[in-house]
Amino acid sequence: MTLLEEGLLKQPKWRFIDQTNVNPAFGALESYATDDTLCRTVGKKVSPPTLRAWVHEKTVSLGIQDTKLPKLQEGIAFLKEAGYQVVLRNSGGLAVVLDQEVLNLSLILPDVERGIAIDRGYETMFTLIKDMFADFDQVIEAREIERSYCPGSYDLSIEGRKFAGIAQRRMAKGVSVQIYLALNGNQDERSTLIREFYKRSGKDLQEKYKFPDVDPSVMGTLSGSLEQELTVNDIVRRLLNSLRYYAGELYSSTLSAEELDLLPQYFERIIQRNEKIK
User: Is 163 helix (H, G, I), strand (E, B) or coil?
Assistant: First the structure.
């Protein structure tokens, strides 16, 4: 670990918000609005750095570039017929699959005076994930896995099989570093779903944007790669054990009264953003 990465994790106080119990009334759009709310309060330093864990029912989360697909509505119709909700998120990347066996983590930090470099945010999350699984022999790598869904330079993989991807959202002097961790489930089915979505959305009918030709063989789950069955609760326990090492104080809470007041306006903003895919 570099001193820079340790500096971001070593905070006088960390707050943990647990939203891993699936609630049909609390969907992915509410999650993205929650992260924006936290960016605002953490960025203003009225709330401490916050780690939020969240899980949702079957959802495909699209990136802004996906809105450039020439036959997007046909692709969305296919996803809905397959039983998935479809949302447009406010962070980077392309389409990813969320379900009850995919754990999402958001690391919300105040931006520093000269700004947290983008790679530094990614490296901080990567450092935390490596620390959580340091007792395993397998090596977790951060590099682009070609033909994965939502490929990027900070894909996390073991022996070439991707199980996680990292994105960032920056606003109101706050930084949200988000990761999805595919713990269990059928990653072949998830990959095939996204490959078919891009086919039906006409990715090959345009040349301006690059969309992945998804190969299910390069995608895996964390349980499969580590050869140990892991649950959401297992990961949350590892997460808290790792964070306690860095935190002067670590406590669990819900949103503050100020955050609950701010949340509706950020939810309305992301609802308006999602008009682009209707």
Answer: strand
Residue indicated by tokens 């309060």: 41
Q: What is the distance between the alpha carbons of residues 276 and 278, in angstroms, rounded to a whole number?
A: 6
The CA-based angle 174-47-246, given to 5 degrees, is 85
CA 52-119-108 angle, to 5 degrees, is 20
Q: In this structure, what token pair is assigned to residue 251?
A: 């406590």
Q: What angle do CA 254, 257, 259 make, to 5 degrees?
A: 75
- In the chain, % helix, strand, coil (3-state, to 5) comes to 40, 20, 35
- CB contact set of 134 (below 8 Å; sequence gap of 6+): none
Token pair, residue 260, equals 């609950």
- 13-277: CATH architecture: 2-Layer Sandwich (3.30)
- Concerning whether 150 is annotated as a catalytic residue, the answer is yes
In this prediction the pTM is 0.94
Q: Shortest CA distance to 59 belongs to which of 10, 93, 33, 22? A: 22
- DSSP code, position 219: B
Strands in 250-252's sheet, in edge-to-edge order, are 141-142, 156-158, 161-171, 174-182, 102-110, 50-54, 14-19, 250-252
**pLDDT one-digit tens code per residue, 50-61:** 999 999 999 999
Cβ atoms of 59 and 98 within 8 Å: the answer is: yes
Q: Is 176:110 a contact under the CB 8 Å cutoff?
A: no
Q: How many Cβ atoms are within 10 Å of 258's Cβ, its own excluded? A: 14
Q: Which two tokens stand for residue 188?
A: 């072949």
**Residue-range domain boundaries for the chain:** 13-277
Residue bearing tokens 């109101």: 172
Catalytic residue among 150, 177, 222, 240: 150
Summarised one tens digit per residue, pLDDT across range 137-171 is 999 999 999 999 999 999 999 999 999 999 999 99
